[in-house]
């Protein structure tokens, strides 16, 4: 097993965590992008298999969410482990993405999250949307969706910190869950940190969307003017896909890097003897 020195407990602020994520993106994107590309590909495989199963058994759509939750969660923990190595200047390899698949405690945490997430989704009372169907215009008007929003939000934030404490800071499963409860206590402000990142991303998307619209509008005009319409459309489509994938990778590095740094404030430094170093 590869040696790994976990990230150390810290007391970051919102701004320092965000700056740390940006520093990771700015300095490590050139080295991290192959791992992020593989990560996105593996996540895509999970969604593709889930879609195929849903088409063959649409009656049990909620049931098929369980293996998808499990797959994504284990891959997320592997990515957190890899990014933690990068943040601390340790050597890593793309195989680290599968790190959680080889650890019993990682499976336990992923199973807990997958079971709870699947059950909440199955018994939420939200209207079903079959594969291939369009989302109804009034879907977000259903009361059940907003009733389930708060528990699902808390669940995602809580387990996000759990997985990061386990994967990046070396805490065992029990201590990871106990320490993450800090977001419901004296460290409650970190409950809102993921939503601060989401708000920043919305602003970024608006700016990037405007830039892309102008950029591709100019390119489309040029290829049409020069008479290379068919070839131009193909080139523009490929360029758009590449740029979107690059943007997605950049977002993952920045947001997960910021979250990993922020997670340090939840770790109880008085219980370091309980940690499990991978």
From TrEMBL:
The keyword Cytoplasm does not apply. The keyword rRNA-binding does not apply. It comes from Acidithiobacillus sulfurivorans. Keywords: Membrane, Transmembrane, Transmembrane helix. This is DUF898 family protein. The chain crosses the membrane at residues 32-53, 65-84, 105-125, 145-169, 190-222, 234-262.
């Amino acid at each position: 097993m590869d040696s790994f020195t976990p990230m150390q407990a810290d007391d970051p602020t919102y701004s320092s965590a965000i700056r740390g994520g940006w520093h990771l993106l700015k300095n490590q994107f050139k080295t991290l992008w192959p791992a992020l590309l593989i990560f996105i590909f593996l996540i895509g495989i999970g969604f593709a298999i889930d879609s195929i199963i849903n088409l063959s058994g649409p009656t049990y759509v909620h049931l098929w969410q369980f293996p998808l939750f499990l797959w994504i969660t284990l891959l997320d923990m592997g990515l957190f482990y890899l990014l933690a190595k990068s943040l601390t200047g340790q050597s890593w390899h793309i195989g680290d993405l599968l790190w959680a698949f080889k650890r019993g405690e990682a499976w336990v945490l992923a199973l807990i999250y997958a079971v709870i997430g699947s059950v909440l989704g199955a018994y939420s009372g939200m209207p079903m949307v079959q594969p291939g169907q369009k989302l109804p215009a009034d879907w977000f008007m259903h009361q059940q969706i907003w009733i389930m929003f708060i528990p699902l939000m808390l669940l995602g934030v809580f387990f996000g910190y759990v997985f990061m404490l386990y994967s990046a800071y070396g805490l065992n499963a029990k201590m990871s869950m106990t320490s993450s409860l800090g977001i419901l206590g004296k460290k409650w402000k970190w409950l809102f940190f993921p939503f601060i990142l989401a708000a920043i991303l919305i602003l970024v998307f608006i700016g990037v969307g405007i830039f892309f619209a102008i950029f591709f509008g100019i390119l489309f005009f040029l290829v049409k003017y020069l008479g290379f319409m068919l070839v131009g459309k193909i080139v523009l489509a490929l360029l758009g896909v590449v740029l979107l994938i690059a943007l997605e990778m950049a977002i993952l590095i920045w947001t997960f890097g910021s979250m990993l740094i922020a997670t340090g404030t939840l770790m109880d430094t008085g219980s370091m003897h309980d940690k499990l170093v991978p």
